[in-house]
Amino acid sequence: MTIWTTLAQAEELAAALRDGSVAQGGPVIVDCRFSLADPEAGERDYRQAHIPGAVYAHLDRDLSDHRKRGQGQGRHPWPDASDFAARLGAWGIGPRTQVVAYDDLDGSHAARFWFLLRALGHERVAVLDGGIARWRALDLPLDEEVPSPRPVRYEASFDDARLLDAGQVQARLDAGDVLLDARGAPRFRGEVEPIDRVAGHVPGARNRPFPDNLSGGRFKPAAQLAEEFREVLAGREPARTIAMCGSGVTACHLILAMEHAGMPGAKLFTGSWSGWIEDPSRPISRA
After folding, report:
1. 132 and 166 part of one domain
2. What confidence tens digit (pLDDT) does each residue in 221-259 have?
3. pTM
4. Which of 119, 193, 203, 267 is the most exposed place for a label (fewest CB within 10 A)?
């Protein structure tokens, strides 16, 4: 079976489903559809139709820990490794299981799931390029059956060197690292703020809206992404890159794009903008 570590193509995943490799220990598929406007919409859509065999991961319940709200962790606090590993085991995902995640937007929620596994040291995880929209465009099969995975044991810890809080981000900026903000340009400049209570950006950050990683709903070719990120990094190593967004979700899209481009090692500001502004003494730029 092909090993996918960044992106999986719909045709390849469909072939794996057809030849029975899923039943033989092949990929576990994870549906990550979610809407901030209606947090239960993604699961409703999942129950109506999903890629055959997929389990459902809810951004708030499964990919975040809201018990940590108000602790500088932002709107979608990073979960504890033990809790997340238990969820993986319940879905039938073991340390060497091939996993493919998808959503119905642009890969941003699936990328959060991808980086959660990557931060655990899990290599065999990928995002479905083009998501369920491309799956449907190719007229590939969908299912209503909710699977009952056989639980397995998953034990791992996060690589804390890749997960930074506000103080660590400031220290890395002072040392010359690059902070990339994945939000749209108007939010970055502080012209609008539809979600968080304060508009603006972290002083010294650079804007790289995550949709810039895409063309026609799919990720740009690896060589093109590499050229674009090299220009942004201006000679710095990829490991000196920190990604952020509003709450640590779409930032993972930047990390995925960089790894797809052969530029691994970027870090995540887990609390991102919503975590930064929890302390009113922190500086804010609007420009």
Report:
1. no
2. 999 999 999 999 999 999 999 999 999 999 999 999 999
3. 0.96
4. 203
